[in-house]
Amino acid sequence: MRPRVKPVRRASVEELLWIQGRLVSALETKDVIFSVQKLLKERVLLHVSHEGNRYAVYLNFRTGRFSTPKDLKNKIILHKSVYKVIVYGNI
User: Fold this and answer.
1) In Å, how far are 4, 17, 57, 59 from 69, measured between CA atoms?
2) How far is the C-alpha of 2 from the C-alpha of 6, rounded, in Å?
3) How far is residue 35's CA from residue 45's CA, in Å, rounded to a whole number?
4) What pTM was computed for the model?
5) Is 70 exceeded by the pLDDT of residue 46?
6) Do 77 and 68 meet the contact criterion of CB atoms below 8 Å apart?
């Protein structure tokens, strides 16, 4: 018997427009770099600069959520401070 999969809430238009605005401002200040080669399954790989370090995160355009890539050789942990930079700070 397969375990139940909880349906994922899709991001609203307002949420996606807010994320778009934050990403546009981050691109202008060069806090975020897009890696178009990793545009897979409604996700894009972002490299986020924070306090001199660069972190890799996926942005899922369907849900508006961020996650850490599992396929990186040197796995980078997405710290809460970096998440705050993504959601509340520079972008």
Assistant:
1) 24, 23, 6, 10
2) 12
3) 5
4) 0.47
5) yes
6) yes
